[in-house]
């Protein structure tokens, strides 16, 4: 049972420790060969039947490891060979979180001071305010903050070409389940391990047991207002750059609704530019207990979100109002 032979390719110093470990176990040394180097550069004595890797980063694509995974497939995997994971999905849904929005906006309060040891900082307030919203938020959030069922973008690792990962362009279309302020787009991912007899999805969905990837939220500096049943459209564009990550461009628009909506038209539009490599890590914030949103291991996130109670009126409105009053007293401008 098990693989006839394993070729372990590792570019870091961990390859040296792996070699020492294998050397201390002669039975393993007969079946495992450690090759130190990059998959783009090393050579293998033969093709592999199975390719196993952990190429996922935040929002699946951060660190651009998927490209190396695709290169390894093209260089080392036999035709019709198996990949674990074999499929990745990015899930997206609009969210409303007044507490998070005020928390980010309040960071710029420092730059409203007009006499900081004799220096007027207020000329930089606008730049600081915009700058804090360029950081995607990485944390675990309550799925009841979502205002519409999620949509998905699928990446099939067995067929995707490397250049298709340089720019990922995803059209967005949702129908709001409740009327409120939409503060941005929430994102998470899952990957499929498709065995010969069992399929398993590793999910990072909100409400599922928390992973070290958490979830990611792109918060807009200008929220948009929606009513229940109103259509939300937009676009999520991720452009790769040389810092092993992506620049995110997000646009959300609230379309006309009710009488005359069939004629089209946009009521509000908000745009944002975020750097995936420079997130705001918010993991220390209070998180929900996974038991409250228990799901089976291979339940798909789309099903999970649709089963959640979409009523977010349980938000601490009183606490939000206190925060807003505090900001107003400090003359901060929430756009």
Provide a descriptive summary of the structure in words.
The protein contains seven helices and 15 strands. It has helices spanning 14-23, 26-29, 65-76, 98-106, 125-132, 301-306, 317-329, and strands at 6-10, 32-36, 48-52, 77-84, 87-95, 137-139, 151-156, 167-175, 180-194, 199-203, 215-226, 231-241, 245-255, 266-275, 280-281. Strands 5, 6, 7, 9, 10, 11 and 15 form a seven-stranded mixed beta sheet that branches. Helix content is 19%, strand content 35%. The longest helix has 13 residues, at 317-329. The protein has 335 residues and is of the alpha+beta class.
Secondary structure topology:
Blueprint: E1 6-10, H1 14-23, H2 26-29, E2 32-36, E3 48-52, H3 65-76, E4 77-84, E5 87-95, H4 98-106, H5 125-132, E6 137-139, E7 151-156, E8 167-175, E9 180-194, E10 199-203, E11 215-226, E12 231-241, E13 245-255, E14 266-275, E15 280-281, H6 301-306, H7 317-329
Parallel strand pairs: 1-2, 3-4, 6-15
Antiparallel strand pairs: 5-7, 5-9, 6-11, 8-12, 9-10, 9-11, 12-13, 13-14
Helix pairs in contact: 4-7
- Alpha-beta classification: alpha+beta
Task: Tell me the span between the first and last alpha carbons.
Answer: 62 Å
Shape: globular
Secondary-structure element series: EHHEEHEEHHEEEEEEEEEEHH
Largest sheet: 7 strands, mixed
Q: Percent of residues in helical segments?
A: 10-25%
**What is the count of DSSP helices, taking H or I runs of 4+ residues?**
7
Uncertain stretches of 5 or more adjacent residues: 285-327, 329-335
Mean pLDDT: 86
Strand proportion: 25-35%
Q: Got a strand count?
A: 15
Q: Return Rg in Å.
A: 23 Å
